[in-house]
Amino acid sequence: MNEDKVEGVAIANLIGADERSVVGWVYRWNTGALAVMWDVNGPQRVGQCQPDLKDAEKREIDFDALTRMRSGDGG
Predict the structure, then answer these.
(1) Cα separation of 28 and 10, whole Å?
(2) pLDDT band, very low/low/confident/very high, at 4 (cuts 50, 70, 90)
(3) Which of 19, 23, 40, 75 is the most exposed place for a label (fewest CB within 10 A)?
(4) pTM of the predicted model, to two decimals?
C-alpha cells in the first residue's frame, strides 16, 4: 500500500442470511480502521463472515447489529 494515500484491502466477505450470497466486504484501511462496503443492493442482514474475524474486529464493525438488520435498513 502507498503510505501517502488512504487505501484499503478486503479482509473478509460478508455472507447474507441465505448463507450463500456475498452481500458485502470488510475492508482494512492503511490507517488501521475497518469499514463495511456493501454490494450494489445496499445494506442487508449478514449471517456470517468468511474468513471469520477476531472478536475485536467484529466489535469494531458492530457485527451483531449486521446480523439483526432488515434488508435496506442501513443499520
Answers:
(1) 6
(2) confident
(3) 40
(4) 0.84
* Domain presence at residue 3: no
Coil vs helix vs strand at 59:
helix
Q: Domains in the chain: how many in total? A: 1
Residue 73 lies in a domain: no
Specify the pLDDT at position 74.
53
Residue 1 maps to a domain: no
Length of the chain equals: 75
- Which neighbouring-strand residues pair with 25? 13, 37
**DSSP conformation class of 64:** H
> Which residue range forms the structural domain that includes residue 60?
8-68
Please tell me the distance from the alpha carbon of residue 25 to that of residue 34, in angstroms, as a whole number: 10
The 8-class DSSP code of residue 40 comes to: T
The pLDDT mean for the chain works out to 91
